[in-house]
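Let us begin with a simple case.
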Amino acid sequence: MKKLALMLLFVAGSTTLFAQTSVPKVVVNDKDGWHKIGETTVSFDKDTDKIPIVGANRFAAIKIKVTEAPINLKSFDVAYGDNQTKNVAIGKEIKSEGETSVAQLGGEKVVKRVDLHYNTVPHGNNKKAHVEVWGLKTNPDKK
């Protein structure tokens, strides 16, 4: 009976641990400037990741930062609060410790999600790329 109880605790703890890695970053800071608004570690077996944006989610621009390993970033889609989307074509390899150019959104807009479209790049260390989404707040309505 003790073994079963310990096994159930282990499974429950493992499930909680894995669930925490998929929880979106909640943006609480509304000050002007760049803020990390989401992140993921890309997989070798997928080519799309959807990153939800929660909280203070009005941004004027978006950029993507890559660490740990390079990726071939085809494009990313920005899903707005009004269900419109903007596709930002990249079409190049982003090296580790690199970033995309800034994608202007045409004024501050509510961003619900950023969808990455990529291929992993073969490299010798087998590390997975860590990708961060950064959003620029300008707060034009507060000036």
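The second case is a distinct protein. As before, the sequence precedes its structure tokens.
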Amino acid sequence: MTPEEIIQYICNRLSGVAPKVSWGETSLFYNPGYVLPNGVYFCTIKKHNGEHDKASNLDREDVFRVAIGLTPKTYVRLFGRQPTRPGKGGIVATEHDFTELNELMPHPIYAWMSWVQILSPSREKFEEVFPLIEEAHQEAVKKFEKKIANNPVGADS
């Protein structure tokens, strides 16, 4: 699948998704009606290395990352204990090869926050991990609703 196909797949199947492109990355936010400036993000698609994000070698031809923000409970169920936060410019200490394609694994930088990645997933593998994206979306909906309840739209205008 291409990054564009994945974005379209997610937008077609999940409600209230608002894609936002910045710095060569498409972030998928839950933000129905664009009520908040950004909403709550739950998934990103990145096509190239960043200044402090080279561990997955995204500058290879046709390689991109789908990153998913899991709940800590789901992360632990899949990978065990979360790693500690890496130092600036560092990566998390796990035994994973962060350049491996089509394999769900901890995110090299943000695993400590329960984020995972899959590089250039096949359609089959993407559909296999899609329930994790659905779960991340559901969590984003909860966080969005909490934000709206605590700060009604227009309250600070």
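The chain has one domain: 3-145. The mean pLDDT is 93.
Keep these points in mind for the review questions at the end of the chapter.
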